[in-house]
Structure formats: structure tokens, C-alpha cells
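Ticket #4471: complex job returned nothing on first submit. Input attached below:
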Amino acid sequence: MGHEILIVEDERNIALSLEFLMKQAGHSVRSVGDGQDALDAIDELLPDLILLDVNLPTLDGYSVCARLRAEERTRHVRVLMLTARGREIEREKGMAAGANDYLTKPFSTRELVQRVESLLGET
Amino acid sequence: MLSGSLILFASLCYLGLLFVIAHLGERAAAADKSLIANPYVYTLSMAVYCTAWTYYGSVGRAANTGIGFLPIYLGPTLMAATWWFVLRKIIRISRLQRLNSIADFIASRYGKSALLGGLVTVVAVIGILPYISLQLKAISTSYTVLRDYPELGTLSRTVRELPWQDTAFWIALALAAFTILFGARNVDVTERHEGMVAAVAFESLFKLVAFLAVGLWVTFGLFDGPGELFRQAMNEPRLQQLTSTERLPGGYTSWLSLTLLSMVAVMFLPRQFHMAVVENVDENHVRRAMWMFPLYLLIINLFVLPLAFAGEMRFPGGSADPDFHVLTLPLAEQRDMLALFVFLGGLSAATGMVIVATIALTTMVSNDLVMPVLLRTRGRVFATRLDAGKTLMQIRRVTIVVIMLLGYLHFYLIGESYALVTIGLVSFCAVAQFAPAVLFGLYWKAASRLGAITGITAGFLIWLYTLLLPGFAQAGWLPRSFVDDGPFGIALLHPYHLFGLQGLDAITHSLFWSMLVNTGLLVGFSLFGTRSVAERVQAERFVGVFADGGRKLDVDALQGNATVGDLQNLVGRFLGQARTQRVFANALMTDNGKGQSADLQERLHETASPLLVEHSERLLAGAIGAASARVMINSVAGGTAPSIESVLSILEESSKVRSHSRRLEQQSRELEAATQELRSANERLQELDRLKDEFVATVSHELRTPLTSIRAFSEILLATPDMESTQRKEFLDIVVKESERLTRLVDQVLDLAKIESGRMEWRHEDLDLCTIVNDSLASVSQLIRERNIRCEKTLPDQTLNVNVDGDRLTQLLVNLLSNAVKFCDADDGRIALRLLSSEDGYRIEVEDNGAGIGPEEIEHVFEKFHQANRANAGESLGTGLGLPISRYIAEHHGGHLYVARSRPGSTVFALDLPRPSSGNDGPDTSGNRSDTETGR
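Support reply: We reran it on our side without changes. The output follows.
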């Protein structure tokens, strides 16, 4: 039941924690620190789910998400967006860009894992 | 030969008849059935122009100069052609402005100038005195001729009698009494004298009939018709000469000047102005008078030549004074009753002139000379007296007597030195001085008060000098040499040949100079002077009187459809409602003759009577000025819409309002500027607010990042008790580091907030800069050793005294050094710290051998929350606030922190600090001590 998970997060320590949690849940994990790298990684291998940070150095999370939704191959990839921006407008922007779910940092690890599992269960 | 008592009796009867007519006229006027409201009476009343001068003098002049008597009647005939435009305009203006003399008219035209009114009055009185004296002379001489005929030698008086032995003196007093009876009998002071007009019209008719009677009797009684008369006259060579124009004294120039003189005289003689303008009832009467008045002149002159010829043939060689041929001809034929009738005709011509002229002058004297002085000196007493009318009447009576006596005085002093006609022309020339002011005033808006005053004054003085004074000289009251050689023998100032002007008779000469100077000054001062607001307003009204929507009379205009309530509202706005209600209730009470209720409330919706409208206008005029009051009343009374002129005059009049509105405009501009400032201030505030929101959002984001790691690893560690110890240690390390980062972040946010808001406490001390550099390096030496980084330090030998906040400067240097440690080459890390001293100041450089900062990034490294992207992975726990805070610290010390250069292998941050102003530190930079520390 292992799934392919792509983690897109520029904060090294947060990425570490996400990697650990996903591996612990039995998924195979790849991790990149920037939006452009993420698109390359997706080209290489289509993941089942992407944990996507919004604030990224060159290409931000909204843009990555919008690009995925624009392409037939990547349209159905589950996206769980993570952001440290707490305002409601950010959540709406994320959903509008095509995210399946949305979590605000700092998050509860248990809730994160539950959300990931529930998104993967839908497929 | 008639007895004196018979003549006296007949004269008194005649005057009694006149008085009865006047009385009937007044009774009719009181009963609203005017006797004089028709063009015939109007025309006849204007024929007061023909005085004893015409009656006796024309024949005298014709006997001497043939048709030379004609210009005096040609002028008025020509002038009458212009009456529909000129006279009607003057009448309209006078009615609208309630003017009742020529002095009023001129004063009002030039800004209601009291000075001008007084001036015109003085000129008129002095100018008319010879004319009055002429009438006295005519009456007294004709009386003497009638009584003493055929002893004509008494005519030229050689021995001066004392006044009370002189007929003329008693005639003057009698005329004064009679004038008072006509013009100043009632306490009721009005400018209209219907009774007098009726009497004067009768006199005009009477003198015409008398003159025609003697003319017809001579032509058809003594001779067989005009043909026979002229045929006989032509047999006498002297009389034949008279029919050619060559006998004219002064030639055509004189004709022209006499014609012009009589043109203006028929308009501007005070008595003509009074009859034609003030006593005019309906301006449409002018239309009829335009041809009837010339006709009257023609008829009365019809028998002048026949009478002159007949007289000259009957009394050849000057055996009788030709001025009195009309009397001596019937007397010589023993037609005493005809002679008496003719004498009464002459009396009527003289009395008519004297009465009207005196009344006109009296109105001017009392209104334009006495009242202004009285109001100025005792205005308060006068205004509160109930019997002010009585006082006014006494003033007028005294004035009449004084004028009459002055006329007599003139007669007494110089009466014998001129012929009848010449005396009259002297007066004509005096009133001609009014013509430029009136005529320019009627048609030229720019004509100014100063121009009118200087023009009339100068013209009058010239008249005085060239006509009046020579008269006194010829009568022997001044040295005879004055008229022979000029004053003190100065020929240039000769009164008959001023500035060497020769070849003109005295009248033409005087007219030429006075008119030239008068008109010149009027035009000159008007062109190059300034005019007051009042002058401009009046000029607009006078010149543009017909442009005012064709409004005929103001009373008609006032009879609009305003209700009592409208008026009360309007007046109340200016005078206050309580006072207005009181005044209106009073006004309605007196206006209550028609059995209406006096209750104000019940009558609010009634149409207001003209009287009430007029009353309201007067009330308003007191508060807001006459011009504004008129426009205001028109606005509710539904008269004509306010004309441009009236609106203009409101604007002109309310200069106060204008300056007030200028102030308002000014304030509104200031307000607008203030609003603009506020708006931009508000924009700045909104911008600051937006920046603050952004800052808070960014700070919150930055705080959440370390918190996320801390929470995630803490939960992982909690949930995974069986984790192997190396991994557990690794995760705990992260938690610790992120906690430190969080602490640092909080500290730096607080620092930044303090610095930016100016609340940071700076503790300046005198310190050695080398010590600070050493201390800073020491605090990162642990890190340097851990990373195995080589560090090179360059310091000057001597102490560098500075006054700085040591802790903050250390914080800055530690920040630079930490960054250098963080970003230097991971394997072969090298950093350098240099303190350099120069004349300009000190420089501290921190160099690392890392990958360098990209050119596009260099601009951003000092921005808040900018996170460097060049860090060695896993190291970056920056806050993005270190460099911004460092820069603030540098700026606070008057220094500058910047990236001196950056390329792979060498990135240099430099801090420039100024030398302290005291300058007691060693400036020397040569002996820099250099040592190298190498981390282990």
C-alpha cells in the first residue's frame, strides 16, 4: 500500500520531518527544495501525492499547482498544500489554484498523516 | 398818457386774475382732475421762454439789426427737433430718479455729488440774476414809458435814485410776494406746482394775444396791411439796409453762436428745465410740444419786423427807444387802452419768467445749498422735528426774497449799461456752462465728476471774467480801463479779447473760450481720471435709461403683483421680522381709506398698493442702498427683470460683500489645500498601515517556520519512543537549533521595532575600536574553531578612540562574522577581519571565501526577512533580520554598511565609520599589526 510521495519544501528541517513521517507511514519519498525542481521530479516520475509548500525560492506553490492542473498527465495528482501564511485568503488562493487540501504551519503531525491517508484513499 | 394809479390798478387786477387761475389749478389738482395734463398747456408753459426780452427787446433788436433778432428763436426751433430723444431722456431719468432741478440732475449724474449740486446752484443763481434784473428793468421802464409819455427823456436815467424811490425796487418786492403766493404758500412741499403751471400757461397765451393785438393794429390799422407797410419801409434807405444780412453785428459767426446759445438755453435755463422736465406730466406731451413750441415762437415773432419798421418810420432818428415801440406806437396814436393791454402783456411775460425762474432757483438753493448744510450741521435736530416742512417753507420764502433783491441789486448796479437783449444773452452764456456736463452725461458713460466740476467751474469763471465783470466796469463800478486796455494794461488778459482773440463780439468771445475750456476739461478729466463706484452706477442709469426694458415710470413698475406678505418677507429679511411687522401694520393703517381691515394677518395675500411697495423700497434702501433696494423690490413686485445695469450696480455697490466673498474664496482655497494635505497624509498612513500589516504577516510567517519544525519533531519524538538514539539526538538537535532561531528571531524583531520607532536606547561610551573588534571576534571564535576556519585579523597599533554603543557595534560585527562563517567555503573556510584607519575615518572589513552573492541579490541582502540562498545546506537558520538591523546600527553611528565586493572566493562586507570630531586618536595607519589565528 505504499504510495509515491513528493515533498516540496525549502526549509530543510521541515522537509526532514515530513520525509520521516511519510516514510514511517510506509510511502516512498522524494524531496526537493524548489518549485522548478518539483516539476522536473514530476516529469521523471508521477507521484501519487505532493506535499507542497507555498513559499518557495523561484517558483511558488500556487504556480506549481496551477501547472499540474493544466496538464492532462498531472491533472489528477493529489496536492496537499502547506503554508505558514495563516490568513483565510491564502487558503482560498490555494484551493483556487487546484489544491485538494490545505494545512497551516505549524501543523499537527497526526492530522497531517490522516489527511494524507484520506487523500490517497480517494484514488 | 395814463395815470400811475390806473396802471397800478390794472396790473393788480391782472395779477389777481393770475392768482385765481393758479388757485383753480391747484384745486383741480387736489381733486385729481388736472388742468395741466394736456400737451397744449405743456407747450404754453414752456413758452415762458419768451420773456419781456422777447416782448420788448426783439423789436428793439430788429430796429437795429433787421433779422438779427431771429437766432434767439431759431435755436429753440432747431433744438425742439431733438426733444424726442434728448428731452424725453432727461424727463425719464428725472422721473425715475426723482430729480427736481437741473442742479439735482447734474449732481445725480455724477455720483450724487453734493459739491456739484452746490456748484451748479451757485452758477445758476449768479447767471440768472442779470436775467431777473432784465425783467425788472423791462417792467419799470415800460411803466415809466406808459406813465410819462411823451416825455421820453426820463428813459436814460442819469441820476441814480435811492432804492426806495425806485419803481423797480417796489416791483421786485411785489414780485417776491407774488412768487411766494404761487410757489411757497403751502406747507406742503412738493416739486410740482400745478397752479403755477396753469397761471404761466395763461400768461403765455395772454402775452401772445397782446403782442398780436398791437401787431395787427399797427399792420392793418396804421398801415394798409403788411404789403403797404414794407413798401413804405423800403423807401427809407436806413430801413432797407436792415433787410439784408450785412447789418448783422459780428456776421455769421455771431449768428452761429447766438443760435447755439439759444439752443442750450431753451433746455438748460433753470426755468425751462423746471417747466419742461419737472412739471411734465406725461412724456408723450413732448411729441406735441416738438412742433407746437416752434409754432408759438413763429407766431409771436410774426409782427416783430412790421412793428420795428413802423416804429422807426413813426419815430425817425431815434426819437424813441426802439425797445418800447410796442408801447409808444399806440400811445402816439392815443390808443391808451391798447397801450395798457400791451403793457399788461409785457408784465405777464416778465412776471412769468420771474416767478418760474425764482421758484426753480429756490428749489435748487434750498435742496442743494441750504439743506445739505443744515443736515450736516443740525441733521439730528432737524430730522426729529415734526414741523420740518414749516422750516423748509420759511427757508424757501427767504430765498425767494433774497434772489429777487439780488436781481434788483444787479439792475441797480449795472442795469443801464446793456441793452435788453444783451443782458439776456449774458444769462444764456452762464447756463450754457451746464450743457457739456448734461449732454456728455446723457450719452457718454465715461464722463466723470471731476471733469464736470472742473469744466463748469472753469467755464463759469471765464464767463464771470469776460461778461459779468466788464458789465460792472462799464457801469463804473470797476475802473473803466479794465474793458479798454485789460487788467493792469495787460492786453493778453483783455476781457473782450482774451489771449489776443480778436474779431468776435463779447458774447461769442465769451462763449468760445468758456465752452472750449469747459468741454476740454470735462473730456480730459473723464478720459484720464478715475471714477468712483457711485459715479459709474449713475452713469449706467443715465446713459442706459431707455435700455431698461422700456419701463415708463417707476410707479407703473412698482404696481406689480406682489402681495403684502411677499413684501413683508423681503423687508423682514433685512430689517428683522418684528420691526417690519410693526412698520407694515402702521402703513396699512394709514392706507386704510378703502374700508379695509387693518389686520395685517388678514391682508397678507392682498396685492400690495403702489404706496406700500414704494414704502418698502425706501425701508430697504436704508438697509441695502437704493439701487439694490430697487432690484429687490422688482424681484417680488414682478416688474421687469433686473437689467444688466442694475445687477452691475448691485455688484458695484456691495463691494463689502465682494471683499467678504474674496475672503471666503481664500478660506476655501486654504481648506482645499488642507484637504489635499490631509489626503496625502492619509495616503501615507494607509501605506504605513499596509507596510505594518505586511510586516506582521511576514513576522508571523517567519515565526511559524521554526515552530513548525519544533512541533513536528517533538510530536515525532513523542510518538516514536523506540527511535534509535543517533536519530533521536539528531532530531533533538534540530529542535534545539530551531528554538534558538526562534529566540533570535523574537529578539531581532523587537530590536528592529525599537530601532524603527526610535525607541531604541543607545548607550554611548568612549571606547577603543580595536577592543570592540577583538571582543566580537572572540564571541565567534568557538564557531570558527568548530568549523576549522582560518581567520586573519588586521588591527592598527594604537588605540582608536570612538564614542559608540559598544554592545550594538559588537552585535553588528558578530552578525557579519557569523554570516562569514556560515557562507565561507565549506571545506577550506577562510575569513579575514580588517580594521583600517585613514584620514577620512575607519573601515572594518569582513571577508569570506564563499560562493559569493549574485549581482541581482546584492540589492536585496539588506532587506528585511531576506533569506540568503547561498548558505551551505543545513546551516541556514538565519532570520533575515541580521543585516537590516546591522545597517540601522551603522547608520545610527553616522557610518555606512555595504557589500564592498562579491565574487566567488571573495565576499567583503565593509563598515565605514567617521572619525570622532574631537580627533584625539592616532591618525597613523602605517604601523598596522597583522597576525593570523588559525582555528584548530
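The CA atoms of residues 287 and 781 of chain B lie 124 Å apart. Closing as resolved unless it happens again.
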